[in-house]
Amino acid sequence: MTAYILHFALCIEELMMENPYLPIPMVVKKSHLETTDRMLRTLEFSFINEKDAKAFHFIPGQFCELSVFGKGEAPFGIASSPTENGSLKFTINKAGVVTTTLHQIEEGTEVGIRGPLGNGYPMDLFQKKNILIIGGGFAFTTLRSLITFFLHPANRNKVKDITVIYGARTPGLLLYKEELVEWGKRSDIKLVVTVDQGDKDWKGKVGLVPNVLEEVAPSSENTYAVICGPPIMIKFTFPKLMALRFPNERIYTSLEKRMKCGIGKCGRCNIGHLYVCKDGPVFSYAQLEKLPKDY
Amino acid sequence: MKWKLDKKDFKPFLQSLMVEYDLFAPVQLAEGVSVYKKIDRPDEVDLSSSNTQKPTKEVFFPQSETMFRYEKTGNQHQVTSTEEVERKRVILGARPCDIQAVLLIDQVFSGKEYTDVYYVNKRKATTIIGMACDHPLSPCFCSSMKGGPFHREGSDLLLIDLGEAYLVELLTEKGMTFQKNKFFKEALAKEINSAKEIEERATKKTDGSLPVAGIEKRLDQMMESPFWERVQEKCIGCRICTYLCPTCHCFDIVDEALTNKGQRVRNWDSCLSSLYSQETSGHNPRPTNRERTRQRIMHKFNYFPKNFDRIACVGCGRCIIYCPVNFDIRQTIKEIQNSILQNEK
After folding, report:
1. Theoretical Cys-Cys bridge with B315: which of A52, B112, B141, B198, CB 3.0 to 4.6 Å?
2. Do B116 and A265 make contact, defined as CB atoms within 8 angstroms?
3. Angle at B26 between CA B99 and CA B182, to 5 degrees
4. Predicted ipTM > 0.90
């Protein structure tokens, strides 16, 4: 029997190599509500063991299995960027047992984490290209990771123009509001925030994401598009991308599926012969075109 | 050189195995309910059934398995993993079809990027003593699936029942370590010949005529075929075919908790269950039995071959024997092969 105390000693790095099912101990550092409907909350975690922090390397678009002992595990895309050292952020929609517990969890509580899992965004392909990022609702989490990564001074010159179109149903449902304001002031990113329906304080754009995309009409030349959002948004945005002559090979999205193991063993997140957890969650439309519509 | 084990020496042989190994072999829990169990007394071993009800995979991948235990003291969680296998193991009496299946799911659980230590540790610690199948049943079609009742691949030793004795073949390095076993004697030429006759007889008895060649390519074009409507009509979604399938490897992971302690457990799961793919949002990518039965067949005959170059069916016949509505996968295979595809119309 291998026994270990989460707080002390023990090289979890080695344990992870040996047993990918054992969670790494982390502690909840901060927790705050993101949206006015009180359904979305961002939690910030830090590693308890220095070694784990050093061993944890990820790229935007990857996810983790968050573990609440006694409740279970659930997968979440990493919302923080690798450039934000020392902690990991996840924005969590209150929906089931694990997420409800995470919403109620107190700062200082210990949780477990497994990851990073999945492939992440194709960062190599993005080099020296323009990036068009389209997000809707709370699917903006890993897109925040991607944007934050490229806006970091060490990475900004890795890509050319960054255009972001982000929409939510109402202003209160937008994530990362303070950061949106910051990004809006910068000259090295073109940010268009839109809501389906404004309120009395909203001075920004009102309009559906597909229509706003049509209006902004970014060039597809030398550009990669990354689109994450609810199925209905994707359904209507995709034809607009086609009209802008984005080829399928240069449109990427991140899929969700019910997952358990996160490492391609337990079987449930397959789309055709691929597993969303291991071969995804990021896929190009060229890839998806060849797969069964089983998602 | 081939060896034999007299049946009068069989129990002492089992006893001697148990000194060095944890022995797993078929036992009868009740009439017709035969499963693998860790043996405490050689008397328990019952090799009379053609095959166990639950497949050999259970020894490596139990129906329910604790992955770790945890205990909370203050703010800390002490986690105790259960991945280690304390003693070497022997599986005795596994049929060639089940052993084939273990070789198939080996590829899933070992994997390039991640190793499933719970499975792999057990697998590495285990010597497999196969039992040749001298009386294949009518639903058996191993010979169509690159196997056969005497298929030796994956067995470290193979026993062939000669009546008064077992002929023993030592097939691998692990098997060769049994060379000096005191219960093994040199087999006589007539015994070796008699084993050959039994092999020929048994091989003739299993169906090798099922047309599986090319099925992967055909299924590539059948995702949206009305065929699946027909396939699912009969199925009541009881999932027994997936639980008893020696190549099905899906599992669920759950926490079982008391106040301050608990355990994380994995349990066999089935793609034929509606909850299997149901997401928290309510969205279910496989909302009806049509998508779920399609997934079962596609995984075995299309997705698995794409990933591992082999069909994930070994022809053990369990899904045919135990299906409460007489769903016959052989019929499904034939229908797929005979269906008219879009481009052939």
Report:
1. B141
2. yes
3. 85
4. yes
